[in-house]
Design a protein that fits this description.
With 334 residues, this protein is an alpha/beta fold. It folds into 2 domains: 174 residues, Rossmann fold, CATH 3.40.50; 143 residues, N-(1-d-carboxylethyl)-l-norvaline Dehydrogenase, domain 2, CATH 1.10.1040. It is 52% helix and 12% strand. The protein contains 16 helices and 8 strands. It has an 8-stranded mixed β-sheet with strand order 3-2-1-4-5-6-7-8, sandwiched between helices. Helix 8 runs parallel beside helix 11. The structure holds nicotinamide-adenine-dinucleotide.
Length: 334
């Protein structure tokens, strides 16, 4: 049994905290809002996760010091825009060598840093890893089979994460390719916005499959330019997460894109989804990474134009279809 704290009581942090309790660990779930803690204590539920009851032994708190004292593992599960601030606030409480993983997905717009990079910057004394892959909280909370990947620079942290989380409905693989995992998890949200737009416009499975496969090429090009391995993008944190996010009604990025495709403005679409749509932030970061590495990113570029330059989604799709004729894979000789 390990002492584990999950920072962030959104749907994913809560689903993982419940899973960890079920695995027999001593678990603290921290929220930055006392009201959220009070509500969970009163209702024994997190209303973001429907009627599923929280285990009695799950300890709920808004006290950061209590949440981070004597823990074997600290899991960052706050929305990606809040990772830096949360890491900064907690840093002075974290001992040398503390094991930390992030389960958040996103690239910081201003710095182009990943979640692990941000935590390493703010908490340099910690060892930092990541858990990512195709995993909707709504399915994990009801124990539906799920497979993910734990990445860390040291094998020891990846294997520790695997041991803590793995059970008979949650399968965890390990990988040393932290960058590949992080880029896959972050940029799939941008492609999911495009896939949602195609759905909202009334296009079918063909368009979705085209966006997934061509989107994967864009993500892979960026990830490898940043030092990640192409094989990782062919795995759970790449194509796996892309498939689930581009096809599921649980995906807030897909749903936001869907509303845009139906004619809503990006702001109206995000308001309808009612939760943070991280792909909107990652879209700008993706474009900036493309510029930095000199990589052409047609889908990510069109998503940016729809989100930030008032381009109608239908025009974006048409422009993608009418691009110059190309080979599917550059560099393969006849
Ligand atoms: N929901 C999923 O199925 C899922 C699966 C895998 C990964 N993720 C990733 O996990 C992260 C969290 O996602 P989620 O779905 O739990 O989000 P969510 O929208 O359910 O979380 C919202 C919660 O974030 C917290 N929060 C809001 N602002 C904050 C701040 N400034 N500081 C600290 N906490 C703040 C609040 O507790 C709020 O309830 C995201 O990066 C997401 O990409 C989510």
């Amino acid at each position: 049994m390990a002492n584990v704290t999950v920072l962030g009581s959104g749907s994913w942090g809560t689903a993982l905290a419940v899973l960890l309790c079920g695995n027999g660990h001593d678990v603290i779930l921290w929220s930055y809002l006392q009201e959220e803690v009070d509500e969970m204590k009163r209702t024994h539920r997190n209303l973001k996760l429907n009627d599923n009851l929280l285990p009695d032994k799950l300890h709920l708190t808004a006290d950061m010091e209590e949440a981070t004292t004597n823990r074997d593992l600290i899991v960052f599960a706050v929305p990606s825009f809040a990772t830096r601030q949360t890491a900064h606030n907690v840093s002075s409480l974290i001992p040398e060598g503390q094991q930390v993983i992030t389960v958040s997905k996103g690239i910081e717009e201003e710095t182009l840093l990943t979640q692990c990079d941000i935590i390493e910057q703010e908490i340099p004394q910690a060892q930092v890893g990541i858990l990512s892959g195709p995993s909707h909280a709504e399915e994990v909370i009801v124990s539906l089979p799920t497979a993910v990947v734990a990445g860390a620079k040291t094998r020891q942290l990846a294997v520790f994460t695997q041991e803590i989380f793995m059970n008979d409905y949650f399968r965890v693989y390990t990988s040393p390719d932290v960058v590949g995992i992080e880029v896959g998890g972050s940029l799939k949200n941008v492609i999911a916005l495009a896939s949602g737009m195609a759905g909202g416009l009334g296009y079918g499975d063909n368009a979705r499959a085209a966006l997934i496969t061509r989107g994967l090429r864009e993500i892979t090009a960026i990830a490898t330019a940043m030092g990640g391995k192409a094989e990782t993008l062919g795995g759970l944190a790449g194509v796996g997460d892309l498939i689930v996010t581009c096809s599921s009604l649980h995906s807030r990025n897909y749903m936001a894109g869907f509303h845009i495709g139906e004619g809503d403005t990006p702001k109206e679409a995000q308001d309808k989804v009612g939760m943070v749509v991280e792909g909107v932030y990652s879209a700008k970061a993706g474009l900036a990474l493309g510029k930095k590495f000199g990589i052409e990113l047609p889908i990510i570029e069109k998503v940016n134009q729809v989100l930030f330059e008032d381009k109608p989604a239908r025009d974006g799709v048409m422009e993608l279809m009418k691009r110059d004729k190309k080979s599917e894979i550059e560099g393969i000789a006849w």
